[in-house]
Design a protein that fits this description.
Strand content: 5-15%
Protein name: Gcp-like domain-containing protein
Pfam family, one: TsaD
Number of helices: 3
Order of helices and strands: HEHEH
InterPro entries: ATPase_NBD, Gcp-like_dom
């Protein structure tokens, strides 16, 4: 059985080798996954590639940012219709 973290580890290591990098940086919500941190570090160590990642409390997911933005919109009584479609790059403010 293949876990999602196995795919991330494999693709990350493959990309590091392809681009001949000596450093890997994990960031965002995925960087809070201890298994992912450990597995990438183990494989990278074998290839003399350094791995960097922030402290767990700094590894926030985009959901926290979206929830915060939604909270302030709600406080301003700005609401959307229930038929609103998902948009990956929807601006928070319209100019």
């Amino acid at each position: 059985e293949i876990r999602p973290s196995d795919v991330l580890v494999e693709k990350t290591i493959r990309a590091a080798l392809k681009f001949k990098t000596k450093q890997i940086i994990l960031a965002g919500g995925v960087a809070a996954n201890n298994s992912l941190r450990r597995e990438i570090k183990e494989k990278a160590d074998l290839l003399d590639i350094k791995v960097f990642y922030p402290s767990i409390y700094l590894c926030t997911d985009n959901a926290a940012m979206v929830a915060s933005a939604g909270y302030y919109k709600f406080k301003e009584n700005k609401k959307s219709h229930l038929n609103l479609d998902a948009v990956s790059r929807l601006p928070l403010e319209r100019k």
